[in-house]
Write a structure and sequence with these properties.
Helix content is about 10%, strand content about 60%. By secondary structure, the chain is mainly β.
């Protein structure tokens, strides 16, 4: 039953995201340019590998405060679940946003890094440091919504017993930023 609930939840999220994207007006001239002093938030779903229980379903939530058009800071929450694992990581992230010359101006690349903590509950519980670093792509659909994809390498030293520790957990997520 737990496995069915997990897959049903992922399916419902995917359908909701598809519905949101399908009703969004795609304007070619009005890209979501970040403004200094503006807040932006987002959510994404995907997978996190090499957790203490193998590959897990992942959900990321983030917020960005733009210090300039190229630099943002803000919190990142990463949740990962399997049948036997619940894991949450919280970090403060810094992002450097880059235009990609010669490509669609609505497409941006970001390099990011952060520092925080990770708590995992598998055979036993453990809390450790978390250093997520990675790269992301952001494609502006219009002035309010962007599609995002993020690849993160999460460095940690979490050990939940029975030789189920994790040191580097790669994650890939897809979602929206608004």
């Amino acid at each position: 039953m737990n496995r069915v609930t997990k897959y049903l939840g992922g399916f419902v999220c995917a359908i909701g995201l598809t519905g949101l994207v399908s009703v969004t007006h795609v304007g070619g001239s009005e890209a979501a340019e970040p403004q200094t002093g503006a807040w932006s938030g987002g959510a994404a779903i995907g997978f996190l590998g090499y957790t203490p229980d193998g590959t897990a379903f992942a959900t990321n939530l983030h917020a960005d405060y733009f210090l300039s058009r190229q630099i943002s800071v803000g919190p990142l929450a990463q949740l990962a679940v399997t049948g036997d694992l619940f894991q949450i990581g919280v970090s403060g992230q810094g992002k450097f946003w880059l235009d990609l010359p010669g490509l669609d101006p609505r497409l941006k690349l970001n390099l990011q890094g952060g520092l925080g903590f990770l708590h995992a509950d598998h055979h036993s519980s453990d809390t450790s440091f978390l250093i997520p670093i990675g790269v992301g792509l952001d494609y502006a659909l219009n002035g309010q919504i962007s599609l995002i994809s993020t690849f993160l390498l999460n460095f940690t030293d979490v050990d939940t017993g029975r030789r189920s520790d994790a040191n580097v957990m790669p994650g890939l997520t897809f979602g929206v930023r608004f």
